[in-house]
Amino acid sequence: MKPADTSIPKKNTPGKRHRTGEARRVQGEAGAPSFNARIEGIDYDVLEELTGYAVRRAQLSIYDDFAATLGVEGITPQRFSSLVIIGSNPGISQTRLAEVMGIARSGVVSIIDNFEQAGLVERQDSGDRRSYMLRLTPDGQRQLKKYKTAVREHDDRVAQQLSADERQQLRNLLGKLCIGPKA
Amino acid sequence: MKPADTSIPKKNTPGKRHRTGEARRVQGEAGAPSFNARIEGIDYDVLEELTGYAVRRAQLSIYDDFAATLGVEGITPQRFSSLVIIGSNPGISQTRLAEVMGIARSGVVSIIDNFEQAGLVERQDSGDRRSYMLRLTPDGQRQLKKYKTAVREHDDRVAQQLSADERQQLRNLLGKLCIGPKA
């Protein structure tokens, strides 16, 4: 049994559709296998040559490990990132958080509703409904500290076969992907 | 106007819920900003140090470029991978495809329903309903060839700042992530 007050309620809003058509990889869903990057006897064809697929493949494996580590708390990578950004940018608006996360404002509103319900984040009225200022509550700060420790452990496990130099090299190479002409 | 017969119908199955609680990054959704990996004035805190976040950040940027390139055809990275795997492993079962993709069998069934409707994939009865054999139709083969060309172009653009050696190095480093003790 896990204590009810430390977990964020799983969101299951009726009417939220699955609009891109990508099948969700659902934590704990019956029949959802964990991602195995290379299955014997399968010809991956062009996928083997694509940088994008290598990143996607890594991302799927990392997501599985993250879910196994923090999924029971109702924390996903996206929720974790949101909490971190609110924690290190107190007073940030929902609109700006949406921009940082690269998701629609409606998505952020729903994430924040959830955090508010769990008592981790509070919205402070700035006079303009569109620009609520977001802050962690004292409980949110405590929980985030705990999540950070768990995520660091997860991250170290994920990258355990890389030296510190290789991790830096990987970050540098990833940082050079998809940078438009403006950068 | 795009010719109706070359695009895969967008899936919008009622009742499909958004079960993990992660806000979807929806192609073309009103208000969904494209992902900007570094926004000025934002303190990313621990996220800057996490290998997992670097991978996620790259993945989000790549996804945006993929969507801009192939989204109009109704093709997502997941659908593209499915078509490639079916193309290079003709006769593969839905169960095995689910395993390769790391998604629930129900997700694969829905992807295949969609491809079947678009005339790209056919299910061949193997006598056991659970093990339909999947094959591309002649039209599926033609479309996949076209998609491969578009995806290669997208991938070259995404990785344009990396030399061939750096791309290989990146693939090697990514391949070392999240490998369990068995590997």
Automatic annotation (TrEMBL), chains A, B:
Disordered, as annotated region: 1-30
UniProt xrefs under InterPro entries: HTH_MarR-typ, WH-like_DNA-bd_sf, WH_DNA-bd_sf
Gene3D superfamilies per the UniProt record, alphabetical: Winged helix-like DNA-binding domain superfamily/Winged helix DNA-binding domain (1.10.10.10)
Keyword Transcription carried by entry: yes
Transmembrane segments: none
Segments forming domain HTH marR-type: 44-179
Name of a matching Pfam family: MarR_2
Record keywords, A-Z: DNA-binding, Transcription, Transcription regulation
UniProt keyword Membrane, yes or no: no
Database matches in PANTHER family: TRANSCRIPTIONAL REGULATOR, MARR, TRANSCRIPTIONAL REPRESSOR OF EMRAB OPERON
Name the UniProt record assigns to this protein: Transcriptional regulator, MarR family
